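FIELD: query
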Amino acid sequence: MSVNIYLKPEIKNAPEFRTKTHKDGSQGLQFDGMALYSDKGRLHVMLNEWDIVPPVLEEFVTDVSIRVTAPCESFRRECGVYAYEDAEAEVETYNLGGQKQSYLFAVKAKNLQSAQALLRQIKAGTIRPTESYEGAQQGLSRAELEAKLEETQRLLASTTGEVTLAKQRLTQAVADKELAEARVEAAYKLAEEFVSDSWPWCLNTTAGERIRDGLNSIK
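FIELD: result
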C-alpha cells in the first residue's frame, strides 16, 4: 500500500524545508518534520490510506496517487478504468510469487479527497467502470455474464426436474402397458381353456373365480 502526495518544486524555497544528514552520511529531505522522498525527480510525502493532507502542505500539492491491494477472495470487482470527479482508477488482478490472486487498485487524482472517495466506491461496489477490461468483446461485463449464467443454471435445473418427472411418468406408463398386455394374454389363455375343455354350466362360479385369480396373479 502506498499513498504519495506529489509536491511542487517550489517547496524547496519554503522555510520549513530542510536537508538532514543521517548517521551513515546519507542525506534526507524534510518539510516541517515530515520526510520527503524523490520519485523520478518529483518530491512527495507518503501517507496512510485514509490520512488527510497536512494543511502546511496543501499549497504545494500537484497531484496524488494511491496503490492498494486486496485479495480477490474477499470480494469481486470488475477490472477496468473507473472515474469520479478529478480521480481516475485502474483495477487489475495479479498473482505474485504463487500467492492467491489479488486486486491492484491504482488511483490518480489532483486532490486526495476525490482519490479516496473513488477508492471507497470501488471497494463498496457502488460504482461501475467507465471502461471495462472484461466485457468489450461481448459487450457484457463480468457481473452481467455471471447474472446470465445464474439464470441459465436456474432454467437448466427447472428443465432437468421436468425431464426427470416425465421419465418417471413414461416408465410408469410402460409398466402399466406391459401389465395390461400380460392380463390380456392370460385372459386369452383362459378363454382357450374353456373352449377346449368341457366345463359344466353349473361351475360358472368356479370358472369366474379362476379367471379373477389368474388375472390378479399378474402384477
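FIELD: remark
The first strand starts at residue 2 and ends at 7.
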